[in-house]
């Protein structure tokens, strides 16, 4: 069985196992950008709490946040960690969005995928993962953002080694059919959180265990 066939089998089983993982389109790309910044190096619960607290205290628009001093944001986003870094980044990207795009990120998503990605990554504070999250969930492009859970899952499955973002993304985008990329992004994250955990993965309850190189390797060692 080649890698393409193995991935096809994995997709079929995961889509049956996690049937409700649908990609949601965000109507406000700037809010998605701020939420993505807050999510870095923390868990979903804390990043969501930080975003809600920020939204209570400030109007989340690039025009508004570009005029705020970073230290004013810190009490609201402290729960997400690294507030001294994230507050500066939020103000910087807000100013860039105002200066480069007149405060309207939506215009980027009228461009072809590669051009849109380049435009987003020209903004200081937006790296490859943040750009891909915006492309997928604000622009509706079929791309594969790669987070910590996905790195772990695809490494254990045996499709990629190490944590090179671009290499892993390109491997997945080659193996997964384009219409399924956004949905499989969510499915792989769910698999990583609920089953393929960093510590003590629940291999016996995994729907793709028979197609997994990690479990095969463990059994070989035993």
Determine the number of helices (DSSP H or I, runs of at least 4 residues).
12
Quaternary state reads single chain
Order of helices and strands: HHHHHHHHHHHH
Give the beta-strand count.
0
| % residues in beta strands | under 5%
Q: What would the principal axes of the Cα set say about the shape?
A: globular
Q: What is the fold's blueprint, element by element?
A:
Elements lengths: L2 H15 L11 H11 L4 H14 L4 H4 L4 H8 L5 H19 L11 H9 L6 H10 L10 H10 L7 H11 L5 H14 L18 H9 L1
Helix pairs in contact: 2-3, 2-8, 5-6, 7-8, 9-11
Descriptive notes:
The protein is mostly helical. α2 (29-39) packs across α8 (128-137). The chain is built from twelve helices and no strands. It is globular, with a radius of gyration of 19 Å. The protein is 60% helix and 0% strand. The mean pLDDT is 90. The chain starts with a helix and ends with a helix. It has two domains: 3-21 and 145-217, Helix-hairpin-Helix base-excision DNA repair enzymes (C-terminal) (Endonuclease Iii, domain 2), CATH 1.10.1670.10; 29-137, Hypothetical protein, domain 2 (Endonuclease III, domain 1), CATH 1.10.340.30.
């Amino acid at each position: 069985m080649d890698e393409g066939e193995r991935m096809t089998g994995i997709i079929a089983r995961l889509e049956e196992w996690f049937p409700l993982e649908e990609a949601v389109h965000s109507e406000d790309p700037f809010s998605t950008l701020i939420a993505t910044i807050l999510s870095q190096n923390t868990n979903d619960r804390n990043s969501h709490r930080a975003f809600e607290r920020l939204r209570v205290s400030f109007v989340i628009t690039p025009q508004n946040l570009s005029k705020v001093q970073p230290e004013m944001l810190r009490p609201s986003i402290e729960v997400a960690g690294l507030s001294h870094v994230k507050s500066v980044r939020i103000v910087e990207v807000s100013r860039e969005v105002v200066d480069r795009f007149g405060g309207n990120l939506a215009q980027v998503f009228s461009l072809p995928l590669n051009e849109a990605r380049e435009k987003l990554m020209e903004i200081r504070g937006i790296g490859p993962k943040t750009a891909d999250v915006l492309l997928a969930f604000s622009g509706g492009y079929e791309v594969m953002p790669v987070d910590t859970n996905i790195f772990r899952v695809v490494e254990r499955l045996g499709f990629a080694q190490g944590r090179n973002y671009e290499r892993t993304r390109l491997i997945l985008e080659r193996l997964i059919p384009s219409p399924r990329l956004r949905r499989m992004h969510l499915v792989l994250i769910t698999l990583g959180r609920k089953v393929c955990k960093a510590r003590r993965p629940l291999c016996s309850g995994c729907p793709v265990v028979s197609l997994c190189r990690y479990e095969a390797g463990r059994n070989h060692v035993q």
